[in-house]
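User: Design a sequence. Structure:
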């Protein structure tokens, strides 16, 4: 049985957890576990409040993961998994000026729906800004495409189109059957 670890811990059942399912066994979805707050773009007060609450390390990890997914043109239903780790470079902050730096490692994966094909790439580097974190995510996505990820994503899109066309055909047939039945009913009642 697979249950959410956080829920078991909250319920006091941490002692019943026999195993964590972690990479490389299972890669999580992009941004999974991070909280987001949506605000109006022109609301300076809300932005200031959010900035005070923002955990920059989590933000940079999520930016890298989301950039990877964006370059792959994927969404929440595409089998793209990620794992990121960020280790702050405390010596960069010692220099003052609010400089942040960290070692960011990102693993990206794409798995065929049937699980038979899987591509994985990992890249790590030092980042000093949210933009550099996003660039790392884009690099991982491009590396995934180069090793066969595009073919897997194309197969998924083709499968989705075929299923969508099949559903549209079924719906069209159902509508036609209803129209035919209604026409017969009208003809028989006149």
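Assistant: Done.
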């Amino acid at each position: 049985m697979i249950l959410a670890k956080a829920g078991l811990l909250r319920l006091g059942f941490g002692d019943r957890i026999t195993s964590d399912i972690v990479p490389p066994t299972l890669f999580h979805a992009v941004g999974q576990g991070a909280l987001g707050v949506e605000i109006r773009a022109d609301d300076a007060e809300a932005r200031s409040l959010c900035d005070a609450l923002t955990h920059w390390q989590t933000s940079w990890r999520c930016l890298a993961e989301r950039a990877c997914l964006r370059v792959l043109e994927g969404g929440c239903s595409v089998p793209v998994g990620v794992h990121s780790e960020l280790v702050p470079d405390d010596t960069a902050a010692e220099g003052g000026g609010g400089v942040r730096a960290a070692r960011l490692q990102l693993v990206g994966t794409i798995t065929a729906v049937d699980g038979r094909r899987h591509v994985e790439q990992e890249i790590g580097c030092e980042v000093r800004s949210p933009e550099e974190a996003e660039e790392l995510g884009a690099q991982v996505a491009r590396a995934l495409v180069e090793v066969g990820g595009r073919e897997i994503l194309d197969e998924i899109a083709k499968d989705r189109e075929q299923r969508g066309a099949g559903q549209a055909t079924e719906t069209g047939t159902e509508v036609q059957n209803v129209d035919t039945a209604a026409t017969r009913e009208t003809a028989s009642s006149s």
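Residues 22-185 form a domain with the Double Stranded RNA Binding Domain fold (CATH 3.30.160.40). Strands lie at 80-88, 102-111, 118-127.
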